[in-house]
Amino acid sequence: MDDQTKIFLASGNPDKVKELKHMLEPLGCKVVSALDYSGIDAVEEDQPTLEGNALKKARFWRQKTGLPTLADDTGLEVDALGGEPGVLSARYAGESATYQDNVTRLLKNMEDKSDRKARFRTVIALAGEEETLFEGVCEGEIIRNPRGAGGFGYDPVFLPRGYNETFSEMSCAEKNTISHRGKALARVVEFLRIKL
């Protein structure tokens, strides 16, 4: 397969790479990621917006690999917390926080809140000949106790609107059809079908 049919995923998160690869495979392109490159430090996500972080990562890896590059940034926005954790979702409980640390902090901050409305928002940047942004949003609510063993991040406490299962209780395929990242990536796939 030549470089024209390769796409680079600017992520070293194995859970995220697995989810994105699953959706890109039908395009017939070879997917490589930051997991395939050793000795390159992660890009610091220091921008104030999801769009800024996604573009920063996409531009960095596009320059390093020469390949069309997809990079995303995702935030969980909770109404009762004024949109927190938002752009800091991965580092909500500190720089080296685990998924569990972040969920624990979120639930503690939500203890006395009756308004549980929240949304996941993903922005994917595609850096190739041009730069394009794609967005996906999934509305839902934060439940009081984690449920499910699948997924990652805040999935055990996020109940999508209109569903009785958290993201963690859904299969990867089921989650991808309704999730923020799935919606954003569906727009990417639609765009790439025309371009490839």
Q: What ranges have pLDDT less than 50 throughout 5 or more consecutive residues?
A: none
Structural class: alpha/beta
Mean pLDDT across the residues is 91
The CATH class label is Alpha Beta
Query: What share of the residues lie within helices?
Result: 25-40%
- Indicate the radius of gyration in whole angstroms: 17 Å
Whole-Å distance between the termini?
Answer: 13 Å
CATH third-level topology = Maf protein
Count of discrete alpha- or pi-helical segments spanning 4 or more residues? 5
* Helix and strand element order: EHEHEEHEEEHH
Number of strands: 7
The CATH architecture category equals Alpha-Beta Complex
Name the beta content range: 15-25%
The coarse silhouette is globular
Major sheet details: 7 strands, mixed
Into how many domains do the coordinates divide? Answer: 1
Would you mind describing this structure in some detail?
- The structure is a single chain.
- The chain is α/β, with parallel strands linked by helices and 196 residues long.
- It has helices at 14-24, 50-65, 99-110, 172-178, 180-195, and strands at 6-9, 30-33, 69-78, 85-86, 117-127, 131-142, 158-160.
- The mean pLDDT is 91.
Q: Which key features would you list for this structure?
A:
196 residues, globular, 23% strand, 7-stranded mixed beta sheet, alpha/beta
The gist of it:
This protein has 196 residues and is an alpha/beta fold. The chain is built from 5 helices and 7 strands; from the N terminus they run E-H-E-H-E-E-H-E-E-E-H-H.
